[in-house]
Structure formats: structure tokens, C-alpha cells
TrEMBL record:
Coiled coil: none annotated. This is UTP23 protein. Residues 162-172 have a biased composition (Basic residues). Belongs to the UTP23/FCF1 family. UTP23 subfamily. GO terms for cellular component: small-subunit processome. Keywords: Nucleus, Ribosome biogenesis, rRNA processing.
């Protein structure tokens, strides 16, 4: 509501921006009786870790720098009629990294888990059979055999015994 009030007070120069802002869902803020500036109102709504998971869409560099200092708040802006989602800020990346490291199992618990598995016999033994990979083989040995020569009768020459073959003519 504070953003719409600010746009109304700025006059006809920002009438189009006011119409666009009115199309979206209007969230109630804590200072509806005495409105403050739009950037102050937006910053007050994302305090305490952004519990409602708001995105902030702004062209104001000062406001975007303040938003980048808080972790877990996505920032949108417009470049040549295209809405662009800004990459996560270093604060957001550090916050996520910290959450992930806190969720990992501590080292002493990992050791106790391994010991318990050994006691129960759940650990894989080194001597287990491994599957052999099939590898590409050579050619079929039966296809590599040499051709057998025909036995000829003694005294006859193999050339004299050749039969004449007829060629077949194809009709097209």
C-alpha cells in the first residue's frame, strides 16, 4: 500500500507504473495509517529472514544494494523490457553454505556408525566377487579358416575339367 501511495503522490509522470502496481496483489503493511516511502516499506516487510518468501522487484540501486545485504531474498529487475532474476548475493550463498554444513553428521558420529555396521556385519567384504566387464573380442575363428582345395584325380589337369557356365541375361 505504501508503494501505491507513493506513486499517487508523485503525480501523472508515474501513472503507468501505478496501474501496473495496482494489478498485483496488495499486501497489507504495518504502517497503513501513516505511509512511509516505498523502499522503507519493502525493507520492513522482508525483515526477520523474509518469512513470507517475497521477491523484490526494483530498479532502485540503493534498495537493491540493501536487499543484497540480507540473505535469502531474490531480486528482480528489468533490462530492455525483460524481467531478469539477479544471481544470488554472496550473503545468500554463504547462508546456504552454513545451513548445509550444520546439517551434516559430525565426524565422531560417522565413526560410531561405521563401528556399529562392522559389529552387525553390514560392511562389504573385500573378497566379494566383482562382475567382469565384457570386452570386444576378435573375429570369429571359424571364419578365419583357409578354404579347402578340391581333390583332383591323378593325371587330369584341373583346367581341363572346368565347365562352361552360362551367363544369365536380365530383362529390363
Amino acid at each position: 500500500r505504501c508503494v501505491i501511495k507513493e506513486l499517487e503522490s508523485l503525480g501523472k509522470a508515474l501513472y503507468g507504473a501505478k496501474l501496473i502496481a495496482q494489478r498485483f496483489e496488495v499486501r497489507n503493511c504495518s504502517h497503513h495509517k501513516n505511509p512511509v516511502s516505498g523502499s522503507t516499506c519493502l525493507l520492513s516487510m522482508i525483515e526477520d529472514g523474509n518469512p513470507h518468501h517475497f521477491f523484490i522487484a526494483t530498479q532502485d540501486q540503493d534498495l537493491s544494494n540493501k536487499v543484497k545485504r540480507k540473505p535469502g531474498i531474490p531480486l528482480l529487475f528489468i533490462i530492455q523490457n525483460t524481467m531478469v532474476l539477479d544471481k544470488p548475493s554472496p550473503k545468500s550463498l554463504a547462508f546456504v553454505q552454513k545451513l548445509q554444513t550444520n546439517q551434516l553428521v559430525p565426524e565422531y558420529q560417522k565413526q560410531s556408525i561405521v563401528e556399529l555396521k562392522e559389529k552387525e556385519g553390514l560392511v562389504k567384504q573385500e573378497g566379494e566377487k566383482k562382475r567382469k566387464r565384457k570386452r570386444a573380442g576378435g573375429p570369429n575363428p571359424l571364419s578365419c579358416l583357409k578354404k579347402k582345395k578340391k581333390k583332383t584325380q591323378e593325371g587330369q589337369e584341373p583346367s581341363a575339367e572346368k565347365k562352361k557356365r552360362r551367363k544369365r541375361k536380365r530383362n529390363r
